[in-house]
Amino acid sequence: TPIHIELTVEERSELKRMARGQALAHRTVIRAQVVLAFADGKTVSAVARQVGRQRRIVRQWADRFVRKRLRGLDDAPRSGRPARFPPSGRAALGEAGVRAA
Predict the structure, then answer these.
(1) Phi/psi of residue 42, nearest 5 degrees
(2) Burial per residue of 1-10, b for 16 or more beta-carbon CB atoms within 10 angstroms, e otherwise
(3) How buried is 25 (Cβ within 10 angstroms: 0-12 exposed, 13-18 middle, 19+ buried)?
(4) Do 59 and 44 meet the contact criterion of CB atoms below 8 Å apart?
(5) Closest Cα partner for 4 from 44, 49, 55?
(6) Which end of the chain is more exposed for a tag (fewer CB within 10 A), N or C?
(7) pTM for the full model?
(8) Residues whose CB falls within 8 Å of the CB of residue 19, separated by 6 or more in sequence, listed in order
(9) Alpha helices (runs of H) in 20-99, residue ranges in sequence order
(10) How many helices (H) and strands (E) does the chain have?
(11) Distance CA 36, CA 32 (A)
(12) In the predicted model, what is the mean pLDDT of residues 48-59?
């Protein structure tokens, strides 16, 4: 089934900015390219070839965009224990300054 995505002017400009992003995560750039390609009327197969992903993945991101718009392109929260140490290696407020090896 074809996926039809209509974008507002603001959404299109934000997605173009994301698709060109040099400082953004690669996954964010790919997701923006997927949505822009669907908005231009491309098929699932054409979009999958363009971005180098499986049809299933391309359809998943298009469906999430249709349901949640730009918020749908963010990663969903994961289950599991929260990180104990911040990625920066600095101690969080109120914690001892233990350094990882």
Answers:
(1) -75, 160
(2) eebebebeee
(3) exposed
(4) yes
(5) 44
(6) C
(7) 0.72
(8) 29, 32, 33, 36
(9) 26-39, 44-51, 55-68
(10) 4, 0
(11) 6
(12) 93
Burial (CB count <10 Å: 0-12, 13-18, 19+), residue 38: buried
CB-based contacts of 66, cutoff 8 Å, min separation 6: 3, 5, 72
Length of the chain: 101
Q: Which amino acid is at 88?
A: S
Q: Read off the tokens for 62.
A: 């298009």
Residue given tokens 């298009």 in the structure block: 62
pLDDT at residue 81, rounded to an integer? 81
User: Which positions ≥6 away from 75 have C-beta within 8 Å?
Assistant: 27
Give the pLDDT of residue 91: 58
